[in-house]
Every structure is written in C-alpha cells, then in structure tokens.
Write a structure and sequence with these properties.
With 139 residues, this protein is an alpha+beta fold. It has one domain. Helix content is 52%, strand content 18%. The chain has three helices and five strands; from the N terminus they run αααβββββ. The protein has helices at residues 2-8, 15-49, 58-87; strands at 91-94, 99-106, 109-116, 124-126, 136-137. A five-stranded antiparallel beta sheet has the order 1-2-3-4-5. A hairpin with a 4-residue loop joins strand 1 and strand 2 (99-106). The protein is elongated, with a radius of gyration of 20 Å.
C-alpha cells in the first residue's frame, strides 16, 4: 500500500535533479520538436489537397490514403515521445519549441522550474498559473 502511494505521489524536482535530466530530455525533445513541426506542415498540406469523397482519381485517392496513414503513424510516434516525458514526471508545455516544466517545491509552495531546448541549464522558474511569460531567474 505504501509503495502504491509513493508511485502516485507527484515528483518534485530540485534544480540539480532537473539539470541532471537535461541530456536525456534534449534527446527526446529534439525528436519531439522535429516531428511536431513536420506533422504541422504535413497537416497543412493535407488540408489543402484533400478532395471530397468520390471526387478524385483512384490512384490519387490511394496516395492520399497512404499519406494520411503515414501521418497518423507519426502522430502515434509523437504520442509515444510525450509518454516518455510523462513517465519522467515532467510536463511538456510546447512541442514546437521544446518547452518543459519540472514540478518543484520552493519556499513551501509548488512552482515550476522552466527550461527550453537550447538553454544550457535550468535557470528559470514560474508560478503554476503564470507560464513562460512569468519566468523568473533562479537566484
């Protein structure tokens, strides 16, 4: 019973713990940002070229169906990458910029440590409800 409670307990990171996670997170987030950007572009192209049912040539419709199947497969891959982050108990805030929040206890209250792909270290935090715009430098 105690083990089950600990498994459900929310992880709170220290700055050192969050920084220690960065090599792994960089790898995962590079995959996420690349795939998310690619999916957004493909979705926009698919929206432009879709033909109403029965309105296209059979070969064209088959090609579109294959493109749609590839798109859905890559959406599933993106979901798997995001699932990896959830297992690490970090929160993905922006898949296009690789923005991550780490739950943290600071001065007796819960806040987020905030890090974005490309930054050297976790050097910012913000209140739970303020988001990226409310980032403050860790003192």
């Amino acid at each position: 019973m105690a083990t089950a409670k600990r498994a459900r307990a929310k992880k709170h990171y220290t700055v050192d713990e969050a920084n220690a996670m960065l090599p792994l997170l960089r790898s995962i987030l590079r995959d996420i940002t690349e795939l998310a950007g690619d999916l957004r572009q493909r979705d926009e192209r698919l929206r432009r070229v879709r033909v109403p049912a029965g309105g296209g040539h059979e070969a064209y419709n088959e090609e579109l169906e294959q493109i749609q199947a590839d798109f859905e497969r890559d959406q599933d891959r993106l979901g798997e990458f995001i699932g990896e982050l959830k297992k690490l108990k970090v929160e993905l805030k922006d898949p296009f910029n690789g923005l991550i929040d780490f739950p943290c206890m600071m001065d007796g209250r819960e806040v987020y440590l905030c890090w974005r792909l490309g930054e050297a270290e976790v050097a910012h935090w913000h209140e739970l409800d303020s988001g990226f715009a409310g980032r403050k430098r860790i003192s």
